[in-house]
Batch of 2 targets.
Target 1
Amino acid sequence: MSTLDKPVIIGRSSSHFTRIARLFAAELHVDHSFQAVRDLLSKDPADYGGNPALRIPVLKTSRGVWFGALNASRELWRQSNPRPRVVWPEALDVPLLANMQELTLQAMATEVTLVMEKMAGAGEGTPHALKLRESLLNMMAWLEENASAALATLPPERDLSYLEVTLFCLVTHLEFRDVLPTAPYQTLNRFCQQFAKRPSASGTDFRFDT
Ligand SMILES: N[C@@H](CCC(=O)N[C@@H](CS)C(=O)NCC(=O)O)C(=O)O
């Protein structure tokens, strides 16, 4: 089988956005391979599967190249058979759920900036880094306060939702990268403990690619 017959996820095993795509591939039982991006400070789009944004994940399939975790997850879903019932972000049509998804993704993006700035040597004490940390703490407090009600509002007949996958990847990554102590977020931790029982979650544990 050529690589294009079999989807390729391009990313890093330590990246929370990449884990979204890896987790969907596992949930959907889509046979795929994984290509690790060696240097996240590279400025060559070719190192990111051609993504001009210089970001991961990217999914390569026989149909083309898909930039970003949501595009990758949807395409993996389209390739799956049978197709499980997935609740995608556009179905979250009440403020509680829509805001939960927005803040989960924003917290992930904010964490990326904090980690990348640190990796690039800018330090953690710049005015912008301090503001980002404050914003991240605010978002985490909001997510903790609203998680129970939001998760209970998701359609019960679903197999999976993008919201749950992203929330799991966010909280577990904060701990993995030691960005924030996560112990105070009891509701979010309870959710993660439950979600971690899925083979797709335990099979995609964060680790640093060598
Ligand atoms: N909108 C993108 C964001 C992806 C993203 O920010 N990925 C991080 C890794 S977790 C990245 O590529 N960081 C490199 C950088 O910030 O330069 C998605 O949803 O997939």
Target 2
Amino acid sequence: MNPNPHTPAHTRRHALLGAAALGVVGWSAAARNAVAADRRPAPDPGPDLDPDADAVADRGRITVRRSGRYEVLALLDAHGPFPGRRQDEFPAADERDWARARRLDPAAFGPGDTWELDFRCYAIRRPGGRVTLVDTGVGPAGSPASDWAPVPGHLPEVLRAAGIARTDVEAVVLTHLHEDHYGWAVTPDGTPLFPDARYVIQRAEVAALSDDDSATTYVLAPLRRAGLLHQIDGRTRLLRGVTAVPAPGHTPGHQSVLVDGGREILITGDALVHAVQLADPAVPYRREKDQTTARTTRENLLARASAHRALLATAHLNHPFVRA
Ligand SMILES: [Zn+2]
């Protein structure tokens, strides 16, 4: 996601009036505790494009798939409308693309021309309970995403409901440095939220930032001070069967994460942001930094995922897992 940083904040806030009302609501401590201990499938988890669902819990905010020894948990941080008309964001999409996208992700089509989307993170839990977290959502009230995204997000509560302590997190992979992906990486006072984690970012992503970018000041400076910033170059093995895969275009150093413990799960980040780009991977998103590179990345990722029958784990579709 790349919200328009040049739109005056008050305009974006106006466009998002009502986003809080559409955000997912909190839940009781009893419900949280019940969920942590018991991941029964919810009676009605809603439409799911992956019939091999392992578990859906916590009112759909936590969805679990297994890849061999790993559990991959989709964690819903927030949900709301995007501040812009969907056809303005994907001007090259034709009627056929939109019709197919509507079948793939009907919940993305809000009233009028609105685009409804989830803001999701993923946790890769290995035997013993240590976790690699991929992306950290929109963050709390007052985070940099506040100007346009439905803050506050709920990631800390959702992690607790999933039985994940902050100190269980051994790595935080940021797919890229947009504010709806690094929101909970640090608190607004600059304290890393996951004190025992290394924060894994592509060096090219860091290098492309200007000194006054909010990512530089809000997230990178505190991580550097704490000695937790871990820059990588290109394709990098994170764990056995878990690999950071460069996926540039949306941003210069954007990366995805491939979990291959048997069934492949590709955590895409923003290599695709809307089902219309699943319907037709050639459709650009207006705010991609380099649309040509982004298209090549998306086509390659989706072709490979399809050939391997991988599940896609996306940040912004309204289903956490879909088949390529
Ligand atoms: Zn995004």
